[in-house]
Predict the structure of ABC transporter ATP-binding protein.
Amino acid sequence: MITRLLAVLPPQHRRDLRRVITGFAVAAFAQGLAALALLPLLQALVEGDTGAAWWWLAALLLASAVFAAVRARTQAAAFSVGARLSAGVHHELADALLRLPLAFFTPARTGALSQVAGRNVPALMSVPAHLVRPLVDAVVVPATVVLGLLVVQWRLGLVALACGLLVVPVLRWSTRAVERFDAARDGARAEASSRVLEFARLQPVLRSTGRDAHGLGQLDAALVAEHDADRRLLLRGTPALLATAAAVRTALLVLLAVVVLLATGEVVDAVLVPGLLVLVVRALEPLGTVGETGASLRLASNALAGVEEVLAEPALPAPTAPARPSGHRIAFRDVSVQVAGNTVLHEVSATLPHPGLTAVVGPSGAGKSTLVGLVQRALDVTAGGVSIGDVDVRQIPDEDLVDLVSYASQDVHLFAGTLADNVRVGAPDAGTADLDRAAELTGLTELVAGLPQGWDSPVGPGGAQLSGGQRQRVALARTVLKPAPVVVLDEPTSALDGISAAVVRATARELARERSVLLVTHRVGQVAEADHVLVLDGGRLAAAGAPGELAGVPGPYRRLLDADRRSGGWRLGTRTRSAAP
Ligand SMILES: Nc1ncnc2c1ncn2[C@@H]1O[C@H](COP(=O)(O)OP(=O)(O)OP(=O)(O)O)[C@@H](O)[C@H]1O
């Protein structure tokens, strides 16, 4: 556990943790020495050697003082190291997250991440603060006492060594057994609590549809599984813990019996018996408390496993030959992409106009979001390549790519702050005039003017004080404000009414005067103003060209157009401008 923790820590925190371990080891060694000094002290007192007795008393007091001072100092340091360590692991996680592809951040994963950051990392604080000391004591104190006994009373030392060698495997077996059942119980608990949360979240659906047997069935199954896991831990974990306690007590009895035998056989002086008994008890005491530390250790170990899992996620490879694009034309060359073992894009090739508006259309699941996500490396291609200005996006340094691409995804992400804070994310230096212009382009002007605090109005956590359509417009204003030459709009009008959607389409057209704009939409009837259209179907490029040209011939675009017209989404006006220049 400690080795695993050291492996995930940054170097500074690794050194801090090593110092804590060393401090506790020194204190435990001094504790063992203090107990050992009792024997020669008693011997000297019995023999009436007052001089030697004073020396041994001084040695005992010195060892006790070192023990008390080092233990107190290390314990105080251990608390602050714990706090720093948890901050360090948070930083490691943040760095790792920055290197992960955007495709990693699915809703399920972000839920798990909030658990890792909010619960697992703080739980690791307890390792230096509470767990290192009993673990170090359990190793160093018995080892010091046994070594001392081998020197002063080798027979008892050998028996103590044998007892230790027998107790340690029992301890390891019992800890592993309990850990296994405990981990299973933790998993069952996590599943049950997420089912309960899901049940609570689904109340509006469940109530409107009546009793939902499927949802309730899953909740029931999760609760039964949790109960079963609890029972297994109790029935099979408790005997394992009892076995540890029994092993430690047996060792204690054996050693006490050996002390008595040695005393009755006059191998050791009877007056030394109290000293030997103290030593035996002192050596075994820390082993007994390791069992109690086990629960916290298992918790920390499981918490660490969650952190390790995130850190082990494969990051986006860094550029091998970093280059800065001179132009901004986007090209897809024989692009294939596999997600979770399925090929979701098959050898897509296209060169997009720059500046210009390219619409990406196709049925649901055709691969539209995947294709446009490649431009900002939300994920990487499996084969082929995507380039901006003739430079493969995988060779563009992260910070340059961030500056090059402005992206609005289907899922709107706002944070608790003001309207202005949320819009300024991509252009922190933008002034109010720039904000007003972005508002105008995205149909936000009325909203801003209607709020008492205007741009300084708080939006609430996740933008909760705004409607779905307002949130989408704020996210769009953010994308528009960022002065990036490439703009990707993935279903930017899904939550908007017809008039607002028309404003956004006009904005996309306006931006396309100077930038490369990629617009993903289901509504084929609304892309007549595009310069170029890519029609995807089943992950393949089914057609590409100017909308007017594509509409004029039978084919996939015409079929989508007809379907859209039948569903009422058709709009007037088609351009016949040619495809990519
Ligand atoms: N994280 C993922 N794991 C597994 N499959 C995925 C994942 N993301 C996307 N896919 C699959 O990739 C395919 C293309 O998805 P994509 O979101 O690109 O399609 P889309 O055309 O944008 O769909 P929509 O119009 O419904 O948003 C789908 O079949 C989808 O199931």
Observations:
- The chain has three domains: 1-152+295-312, 154-267, 330-566.
